[in-house]
Amino acid sequence: VNNMDKPKIVTCTAPVNIAVIKYWGKRNEDLILPINSSLSVTLHQDQLKTTTTVATSRSFPEDRIWLNGKEEDITHPRLQSCLREIRRLARKRRNDEDPSLDSTGLSHKVHICSINNFPTAAGLASSAAGFACLVYTLARVFGVEGELSGIARQGSGSACRSMYGGFVQWIMGDKDDGKDSVAQQVEPETHWPELRILVLVASAERKPVGSTSGMQTSVQTSCLLKHRAQSVVPERMVEMTDAVRRKDFPAFAELTMKDSNQFHATCLDTYPPIFYLSSVSQQVISLVHRYNRHYGETRVAYTFDAGPNAVIFTLEQHVPEFVRVVQHFFPPDTHTEDFIQGLPV
Length: 345
Ligand code: 2P0
Prior knowledge:
Layout: E1 8-15, E2 17-21, E3 26-28, E4 33-34, E5 38-42, E6 49-57, E7 64-67, E8 70-72, H1 77-96, H2 104-107, E9 109-116, H3 126-141, H4 149-153, E10 166-170, E11 183-187, E12 195-200, H5 211-221, H6 223-246, H7 249-269, H8 279-295, E13 300-304, E14 310-315, H9 319-329, H10 336-341
Parallel strand pairs: 7-9
Antiparallel strand pairs: 1-6, 2-5, 3-4, 5-10, 6-9, 7-8, 10-11, 12-14, 13-14
Helix pairs in contact: 1-3, 6-7
Bound molecules: ligand 2P0.
């Protein structure tokens, strides 16, 4: 095999991010432009993450993709957007900056292989890590650098926030072409070392209503969502950024819980309504409030995305005790849902 025929192979990982000010609703479906800004915390690389390998070779007759070992449809419009945008930037770079760059490489087809180390589509932000990782890995393969969150956004909105570590905001922007709808780091991952995230998996099943169609119905039918996007989130973005900067846990925690609750309220205000929280989720919510009330201060916060699994924020010093409390009320090795429903009344 001569050098030209040798596949080029790059592997990268990208972590999940957890929104504390939620994204829900698009103003442009094709470009994935949101109706409000959002803010999230990106997990560490060694936790919930996607690992993606991209190989490129002149001997590949077509682009192909495998997700968790199963081949998927490469013609998916969002995948095509990401591939097209990366190849466009690669061509631009060759034309503008470095005409000596290997031009055959740009026309080579890719084989993409992506694996999550957590349940896919159970409301654990798998598309965020997935598209962030895809875009970053493709960029490395094709030698593209610079702002890539705008491309990740076109794969899945929340993916743009996983392009950065630490505390990240996705600025909604106001341009029609979406050029200003990008992610920006608010504080780096080193900013708040005491902050901890626990994921309480209430169900690892696929969610019944996907985020994309769920938020479409919400935009069409929920007046609460309109109010939230116009009159609530702008102020909360300022307050949350400030709480993060000051490492003010009670302020951060209270805003996080309120924003999760309002997001789920907009789901209930959607017609027909969408229920992502289960009875277990509701019990976790009650438990967190009882726990905080017991200490007379906000030590723990919950947030829920498009599924019943709770994401808990707390500080390092409270982790062992809170985990004991959770294990007490949700004993391991029981089917919690059956267990609770099976209790005598
Ligand atoms: C978020 N979620 O901010 C919110 C909170 C779920 C609840 O971003 O259609 O998978 O691909 O842009 O990014 C889930 O929405 O939707 C989401 P698309 P995405 O994390």
